[in-house]
């Protein structure tokens, strides 16, 4: 039996940890359906571009990222007052799907202080062949690096950390649907293109303690949602109301009516 203390020790040492079988098959199947529904509804967006601006208007998305099993994990890292900062599907189509170059999440985010944790939920099986997440263990102890643009290769972010990465130190994180990987905002991580015949979809969920300020000029921030505890220093979006025919049907939608 892996204890919470062991999980937190691993996270402190490596900058990441993995929780297996967090969400049930039915909910993961709905998440997979949700990706297809979003892509049909937003044909102008690639699978890697289903992100933050869509979240707070989507009842299923809010239902998914507010699941108590995910919030209980987030609470281990950010405490009991929990808000959503952002969430983003990264769905790589078969035999394509852009790579994500080496970067630190915190270099992109308007947060002060940079106290935040990412939960990476596997919607599909993630393998080396289909472009699973890769991390450099221990790199979370580094300061946030400057970013440099990368226009010479088609990639999800269009940029990378301005640092040389020793890829011999990289660990490939093979995940099954329903697994959750948790990582620090300073850890160097990336993923390769999908060279397999299978889609690789993961959902990133960025939770903050409500004492972390979202410093974006847009207030309330487009995907800021309060899930647990005291609201703290931010203003939040209201939960969306489910409208039949406008939103994807899902189990428990009536709770959002």
UniProtKB/TrEMBL annotation:
Origin organism of this chain?
A: Nonomuraea jabiensis
Q: Keywords, A to Z?
A: Dioxygenase, Oxidoreductase
Specify the taxonomic lineage: Bacteria, Bacillati, Actinomycetota, Actinomycetes, Streptosporangiales
Recorded GO molecular functions are:
2-oxoglutarate-dependent dioxygenase activity; iron ion binding
Q: Which Gene3D superfamilies match?
A: q2cbj1_9rhob like domain
Transmembrane segments annotated in the record for this chain: none
In the UniProt record, the signal sequence range is none
From the Swiss-Prot or TrEMBL record, give the protein name.
Ectoine hydroxylase-related dioxygenase (Phytanoyl-CoA dioxygenase family)
The protein's matches in InterPro entries, at most eight in alphabetical order, are given as: Phytyl_CoA_dOase-like
């Amino acid at each position: 039996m892996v204890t919470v203390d062991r999980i937190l020790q691993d996270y402190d040492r490596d900058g990441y940890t993995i929780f297996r079988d967090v969400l049930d098959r039915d909910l993961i199947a709905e998440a997979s359906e949700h990706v297809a529904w979003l892509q049909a509804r937003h044909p102008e967006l690639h699978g890697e571009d289903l992100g933050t601006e869509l979240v707070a208007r989507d009842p299923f998305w809010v239902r998914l990222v507010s699941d108590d099993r995910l919030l209980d994990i987030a609470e281990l890292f950010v405490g009991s007052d929990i808000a959503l900062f952002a969430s983003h599907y990264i769905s790589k189509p078969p035999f394509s799907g852009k790579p994500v170059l080496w970067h630190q999440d915190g270099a992109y985010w308007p947060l002060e202080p940079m106290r935040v944790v990412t939960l990476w939920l596997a919607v599909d099986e993630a393998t080396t062949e289909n472009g699973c997440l890769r991390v450099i263990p221990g790199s979370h102890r580094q300061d946030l690096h400057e970013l440099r643009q990368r226009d010479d290769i088609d990639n999800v972010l269009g940029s990378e950390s301005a640092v040389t990465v020793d890829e011999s130190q990289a660990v490939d994180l093979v995940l099954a649907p329903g697994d959750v990987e948790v990582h620090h905002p300073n850890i160097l991580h990336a993923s390769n293109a999908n060279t397999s015949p299978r889609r690789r979809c993961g959902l990133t969920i960025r939770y903050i303690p409500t004492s972390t300020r979202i410093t974006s000029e847009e207030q309330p921030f487009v995907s800021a949602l309060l899930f647990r505890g005291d609201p703290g220093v931010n203003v939040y979006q209201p939960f969306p109301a489910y409208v039949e025919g406008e939103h994807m049907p899902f189990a428990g939608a009536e709770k959002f009516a």
